[in-house]
Amino acid sequence: MTVRLQSRQLSQLHLYQVLHAVRVRRGAMSRAEIAERTGLSQPAVSSLTRRLLASGALIEGDARPSQGGGRRERELMLNSAFAWVVGVKIAMHQLTITLVDFAGGVATTIKRPLAAPLRLPELVRQVAREIDKALAGAGGPVRERLADGDTRWINRGAYDLLGSNPEAARSSAGLPRATALYGSLPQQLRKPDSFASQLTSSPCTHFSASSVAALVSSLT
User: Fold this and answer.
1) 25 with 57, same domain?
2) Does the residue 31 lie in any domain?
3) Alpha carbon distance 10, 43 (integer Å)
4) Beta strand 106-113 pairing with 84-90
5) Cα gap 69→47, rounded to integer Å
6) What range does the domain containing 189 cover?
7) Is the pTM value of this prediction over 0.85?
8) What is the domain count for the chain?
9) Is residue 14 a part of any domain in this protein?
10) Residue among 187, 184, 219, 213 nearest 200 (CA)
11) Alpha helix (H) residue ranges in 69-153
12) One domain, residues 137 and 90
């Protein structure tokens, strides 16, 4: 079966290709090297890197010496403070929290003993507390992200994507209710231009509403 990508999807794929090329390099990279590594044209790379610089995912480094005496090209590298990933490992008697920056560097690691047996709600609360501590001790950029109170990027709230219990303040596991950025799934399906509606109507996917619910739940 041939899957046709829309122009927006293709653009997102190319952005990922550029980011992946720079990440694998683990250092500064010129636009010419990105084009060679990804197979994309020079104009495409220039446009894509311009978008990534504007978003903050990439930053410019030092300028390379020009071989022909022309304009010196500035190298590009990942902005390590652009985003963070929190990794959680729950073992029988130990909880490990690791915070990794966008470039793959480990910012901090916290290890805490676990007293078994531990009920699920208490375990979830303890994990949330330790994540807060890891973020608080990670330095300026993380604290700036937390300052406005928008914690969607931490992904620690409970989302009622089906809108089945709109009055609930907490989940069954004790997580606070989070507000879904685009509304509940029934609300999204009522909007023909929403991502969920496009999944159900795309000729390449033919997802049912229940399949979309499962997919969006896994991505949220």
Assistant:
1) yes
2) yes
3) 16
4) unpaired
5) 24
6) 157-220
7) no
8) 3
9) yes
10) 213
11) 120-136, 140-147
12) yes
